[in-house]
Write a structure and sequence with these properties.
The protein is an alpha+beta fold. Helix content is 51%, strand content 17%. The chain has four helices and five strands, in the order ααββαβββα.
Length: 211
């Protein structure tokens, strides 16, 4: 029996196809990378928390310092208020003392100058007179508005009164009533040399000599 080789004796065998080469990472490096990533994250978180803690501590210190300065300023303000209060009290005392010193000589001089102004004015008389420190308040009556105006002028002409305030006159029973307020302010040289009030004791007659 004859056999026929249909494939052919000289046909070469096909070369096997090679699979692509796979480069694999060593399995020992993967845990190391995970450890590094976790460590870096932990270090960053710790650094961030530490910076926040330091900033919070710094701010707390600044707040305490500002509160201390505030307390110191409040103490200074309180001391200033106490000083101003004491200053006002002392100023009031000084004014009272000055008023008392003025009143030692003012009544006599004031009455003398007031009487002189009234004497120079005709048809004007006073019904009341009050004194508080150096301020004189008086009520009076004049037979006419011109007489009251003359009294104002004569009072001003003495040079011993200032801030003269003449109120409106009111007609009453054919005359005119008025109110007047002024401040007694004698010249300094006159106030310094003002004589003491004279006593009303009668003078003693000289004794008669006998032979």
């Amino acid at each position: 029996m004859i056999k026929v080789n249909l494939i052919g004796a000289n046909r070469k065998k096909a070369a096997p196809i090679k699979a692509p080469m796979k480069i694999g990472m060593p399995t020992s490096i993967t845990p190391l990378l995970l450890i590094l990533i976790v460590g870096a994250s932990a270090w960053y978180g710790y650094s961030w928390y530490s910076s926040l803690t330091a900033e919070s501590t710094r701010l707390s210190g600044e707040i305490q310092g500002l509160e201390a300065r505030k307390a110191a300023l409040e103490a200074v303000i309180k001391q200033d208020q106490i000083y101003e209060t004491r200053k006002k009290i002392l100023e009031t005392r000084v004014k009272v003392i000055e008023g008392l010193q003025k009143n030692q000589t003012s009544p006599v001089l004031a009455l003398d100058q007031l009487a002189e102004a009234i004497d120079r004015t005709q048809y004007v008389w006073l019904s009341s007179l009050d004194q508080k420190d150096a301020v004189l308040s008086m009520n009076g009556t004049g037979t006419s508005l011109n007489a009251i105006a003359d009294f104002y002028s004569n009072l001003n002409a003495t040079g011993y009164f200032r801030n003269i305030d003449l109120g409106p006159a009111q007609e009453s029973s054919g005359n005119f009533t008025f109110s007047l307020k002024c401040e007694f302010a004698p010249p300094r040289r006159v106030a310094a040399n003002a004589p003491a009030p004279a006593t009303n004791a009668p003078a003693r007659a000289p004794a008669a000599g006998g032979n």
